[in-house]
Structures are given as C-alpha cells and as structure tokens.
C-alpha cells in the first residue's frame, strides 16, 4: 500500500513527466501537483479524476492500493 502522493509521483516518473507536464495534461495547477506530491495538499475528487485521465487510467485504478482512503477506526 502507498499514499496517494506516492502513487501520483510514481506514475508521473514512470511516464517520464515533470510536474509541469502533468499539470498541463491534467489541467491542475502545478502548485497543486507539487503540494499533493509533498503531502501538503490532499487532492479533491475533481483533481484525482483529472490526474487519472491525464495518465489514461480510471479513477479506481489510480486509487488501487492507496491507503489514504482506507476506513479507519
């Protein structure tokens, strides 16, 4: 399991994209991408969908094996 920040960074690096490239492709501000990857911003559902679309994957695939959304308690 990994955090959403790690998953997005991993995918971005796997695609060989800079944060600016992902920002442009996902139509999400670069400062938001940076904040998400550094765990300073938690992505909105809209941003998650846009990021998944930029990678050409479904939202469920983006969230697969991500522990930020596990039920706690």
Q: Layout of helices and strands, plus pairs?
A:
Elements: H1 4-15, H2 19-26, H3 30-37, H4 45-55, H5 59-63
> What is the radius of gyration?
11 Å
CATH class: Mainly Alpha
User: SSE order, as H and E?
Assistant: HHHHH
What is the tally of beta strands?
0
Averaging pLDDT over every residue, what do you get? 93
For this structure, the CATH topology is: 434 Repressor (Amino-terminal Domain)
Q: Characterize the largest beta sheet: strand count, sense, and whether it forms a barrel.
A: none
The name of the CATH architecture is Orthogonal Bundle
Segments where pLDDT lies below 50 for 5+ residues? none
Count every helix, treating DSSP H or I runs of 4 or more residues as helices.
5
Percent in helix: 55-70%
- CATH level 4 superfamily: lambda repressor-like DNA-binding domains
Structure in words:
The protein is mostly helical. The chain has one domain: Orthogonal Bundle (434 Repressor (Amino-terminal Domain)), CATH 1.10.260. It has five helices and no strands. The protein has helices at 4-15, 19-26, 30-37, 45-55, 59-63. Helix 2 crosses helix 3. The longest helix is centred in the N-terminal third of the chain and has 12 residues, at 4-15. It is globular, with a radius of gyration of 11 Å.
């Amino acid at each position: 399991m990994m955090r959403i920040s790690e998953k997005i960074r991993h995918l971005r690096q796997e695609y060989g994209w800079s944060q600016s490239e992902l920002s442009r492709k996902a139509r999400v501000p670069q400062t938001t991408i940076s904040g998400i990857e550094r765990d300073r911003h938690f992505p909105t559902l809209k941003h998650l969908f846009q990021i998944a679309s930029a990678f050409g994957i479904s939202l469920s695939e983006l969230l697969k094996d991500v522990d930020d959304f596990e039920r706690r308690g």
